[in-house]
Amino acid sequence: MVAVQLPEAREIDTRRRIFQVHPEAREQAVPLNAELAIEGIVTLLQGSDPDFSDVSLDAGDVPAFNRRVYEYACTIPRGETRTYHEIAKALGASGAGHSVAQAISKNPYMIIVPCHRVLEAGGYADRISPYGGVISKRRLLALEGAHPIASKTLFEVLLPVAPPRSPT
Fold first, then answer.
1. Active site (catalytic) residues
2. CA–CA separation, 50 vs 63, rounded Å?
3. Yes or no: is domain 11-144 CATH 1.10.10.10?
4. Is the pTM of this model over 0.90?
5. Distances (CA, A) of 117 to 18, 82, 105, 160
6. Phi, psi (deg, nearest 5) at residue 32
7. Which partner from 70, 81, 82, 162 sits 20 to 30 angstroms from 24, CA to CA?
8. Which is nearest to 140 in space by CA: 166, 107, 164?
9. pLDDT tens profile 33-66
């Protein structure tokens, strides 16, 4: 398996995205490896703990650093999260938090490699996730029992909300 693509709102949009990334892709009968991946994804979306151990991933075109990040992400237990900087430190590259974030944003195996378990510092569901990924990330984490903090918008950073006044 070279990639996972979750469905867009319209089938045509899903097909367009697949062909943008993989112009050589052709429709064919679903191989056993893909069936195992689909079963695992459905299991997760139904709220259970999937087993992706038999799904083989073709990482031939994935840069070595990204592969290390993905291997580490696969060790994060269900319902737990790590930050980009925690992963960088665990990989012996403590100053590489940004590189970890970039690797996670390019994860071609979403859900199978649980990039949704990797957050910004402070436990924020990040703004790096492409194509509506922040919403998907929050939903997947909620299914697993983890609840990230919603990302702060620029408006919230510049004009923080004052705490409510207590009546006197």
1. 115
2. 26
3. yes
4. no
5. 24, 6, 12, 27
6. -55, -40
7. 70
8. 107
9. 999 999 999 998 888 889 899 999 999 889 999 9
